From TrEMBL:
Keywords: Heme, Iron, Membrane, Metal-binding, Monooxygenase, Oxidoreductase, Transmembrane, Transmembrane helix. It holds the Pfam family p450. Belongs to the cytochrome P450 family. GO terms for molecular function: heme binding; iron ion binding; monooxygenase activity; oxidoreductase activity, acting on paired donors, with incorporation or reduction of molecular oxygen. Its cofactor is heme. This is Cytochrome P450 76C4.
Length: 504
């Protein structure tokens, strides 16, 4: 009996010893792992650092980085988040570890419409579907040949914008710069995709489209507890999913109308449409036919959603911020208009090739994108596995944010970082094409915005035309307050009265 008791006691001691060894090893591994994480602020139980992020996360993260450095770790509920705020750290994320960090953490509002499984912006770039969608976009929307072929279209739509401004000038009415430039951009893109205008200036339809795009962006970017505690998703506590569904369904309804019309036309036509008149939707619908169809109508709707949301709001936003900065910096405005007048003279209207002869205007656009990047945190990336960045651990499944807003205002990178000074770019080779990590408003690497070449052309052409044709009178002061979604808007839209220039 004593032998049995002794054996039981020894067995118990052995099991207890194993347990202590196991837990000690796990504790040490956990401790080692935590010491490898980037520095960050202390966090509260359960919620982590959620309480330290306000309505303008890019600013909250910038403030925290002054204490914790250019790569820091925060915990939002169950979600590990690593935020980088320096060009060197951005290079590590966007170039060196681009492949490992090319996944996406999709917000709950995006998942509510199943967009994460069909969107070129959200699906993983290692998939065949992503490569197909990216190829279609690059070939039929954003290739140099396609952009050149649509040059006359852009000129025509910007001339229509000038006509609208001219009418407003005669009535001495203030114009909402964001809405006006949004309609111009929207009609450029809708003609490339559908071969028709979607809106006209002042129409209620244009207002609805504008509100739907902005509403979708805000729903995707607004704080949402379901992003940090997925089990709360069905409750939709902030209403972001409801708003996303409402806004995108309005857009999908428009897209379905065009898809139905095109499909009916194709069924009635025996001969293929003249290739010179084919638009983007024609090319997409070609891939929906046959036994080995590569797309269906649902795929097309979500791809079009990407095109319109990414292409319209961001460009009109940039024009508005540029005008706001120029109006609050009169000397810079004079310098910009003087350059335009010197190059274009009395021609009466701006030609797109003129832009290449306007280095100061190009500097104005870069400076606007430095201070007001359209997507201040880019889209969130996701670590596919544990990866080391600057000696710190970025754990698998962590969300990775690149705070390009903070990088654009970093005093270690820029002199007078909060001042609007386009002259800083004169004679400099730095550009926005994803190679200079102190200025990457369109991202970099495989996730770089494919519409970059078209966006820069549209923004530059609209801005130059507005400055060439009109002087501007403010009915009130300009404030630079922001409101945050995925994109960064002015909290109070810029309303300004165009004053027709006398060129006689």
């Amino acid at each position: 009996m004593e032998i049995v008791s002794e054996n039981l006691f020894l067995s118990f001691c052995f099991i207890l010893s194993c347990f202590f060894i196991f837990t000690t090893v796990r504790f040490r591994q956990s401790s080692t792992r935590s010491t490898m994480l980037p520095p960050g602020p202390p966090r509260l139980p359960l919620i982590g650092n959620i309480h330290q992020v306000g309505k303008l996360p890019h600013r909250s993260f910038t403030d925290l980085s002054r204490t914790y450095g250019p790569i820091m770790h925060l915990k939002f509920g169950r979600l590990n988040t690593v935020i980088v705020t320096s060009p060197e750290a951005a290079r590590e994320v966007l170039k060196r570890h681009d492949q490992t960090l090319s996944g996406r953490n999709s917000p709950n509002s995006i998942r509510s419409i199943n967009h994460q499984n069909v969107s070129v912006a959200w699906i993983h770039p290692s998939t065949a579907r992503w490569r197909l969608l990216r190829k279609l976009s690059a070939t039929h929307m954003f290739s140099p040949q396609r952009i050149e072929a649509t040059k006359a279209l852009r000129m025509k739509k910007v001339q229509e914008l000038m006509s609208f401004m001219d009418e407003s000038s005669e009535r001495e009415e203030a114009v909402d710069i964001s809405r006006a430039s949004f309609i111009t951009t929207l009609n450029i893109i809708s003609n490339i995709i559908f071969s028709v205008d979607l809106c006209s200036y002042g129409s209620e339809i244009s207002n609805g489209f504008h509100d739907s795009v902005i509403g979708g962006m805000e729903a995707a970017g607004s704080p949402d507890l379901a992003n940090f505690f997925p089990f709360l998703g069905f409750l939709d506590l902030q209403g972001n999913s409801k708003r996303m569904k409402f806004c995108t369904e309005r857009l999908f309804k428009v897209f379905r109308g065009f898809i139905d019309i095109k499909t009916a036309e194709k069924s009635l036509r025996n001969d293929p449409k003249d290739a010179s008149n084919r638009d983007f939707l024609d090319a997409l619908l070609d891939l929906t036919v046959g036994d080995e169809a590569e797309l269906d109508n649902n795929d097309i709707e979500h791809l079009l959603l990407d095109m319109f949301i990414a292409g319209t709001d961001t460009s009109s936003n940039t024009v508005e911020w540029a005008m706001a900065e120029l109006l609050t910096n009169p000397k810079t405005m004079v310098k910009a208009q003087s350059e335009i007048q010197r190059i274009i003279g009395q021609n009466g209207f701006v030609q797109e090739p003129d832009i290449s002869e306007l280095p100061y205007i190009q500097a104005v656009v870069k400076e606007t994108l430095r201070l007001h990047p359209a997507v201040p945190l880019l889209l969130p990336r996701k670590a596919e596995k544990d990866v080391e960045v600057f000696g710190y651990l970025v754990p698998k499944n962590a969300q990775v944010l690149v705070n390009v807003w903070a990088i654009g205002r970093d005093p270690n990178v820029w002199e007078n970082p909060t001042q609007f000074e386009p002259d800083r770019f004169l004679g400099e080779e730095i550009d926005v094409k994803g190679r200079d990590y102190e200025l990457t408003p369109f991202g970099a690497g495989r996730r770089i915005c494919p519409g970059l070449p078209l966006a820069v052309k549209m923004v530059s052409l609209m801005l130059v035309s507005l400055l060439y044709s009109f002087d501007w009178k403010l009915p009130n002061t300009v404030d630079m307050e922001e409101t945050f979604g995925i994109t960064l808007h002015k909290a109070n839209p810029l309303h300004v009265v165009p004053v027709k220039k006398n060129r006689h």
